[in-house]
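Morning run. Coffee first, then this:
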Amino acid sequence: MQQASLLLSLACALMTSLADVGNRRAVEQGSRDDTGGSDTCPRACFCNSPSHIVYCSRRGLAAIPDGVPPDTLQLNLNGNQFSSTTVTRSNVSDYLLLEHLYLSECGLEHIEVGS
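And here it is:
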């Protein structure tokens, strides 16, 4: 049981490290995504266009950033202190294909029904 917990912890740490590397790369490229496109990814984030995953973890964001592609399947916003403590339907209504939304450590207290 301890080995499984350790492996899970290591996997989480690796994912965080990879996201941080990706964030630095995205900033260095001037908000270009990994396919060479431009203006398809928020400047503070890293977008993996082929898999439709957007990483915006621990970027000091106060809200979901503008410019997240509408075809995003997974949006990771963990570790940002949002200015609002409530997720409303209007916050996420543009992301019709979104399957996974990660919001841990964002200071959220409520999720509006239907969000």
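Confidence is low (pLDDT under 50) at residues 4-14, 16-39. Good start to the day.
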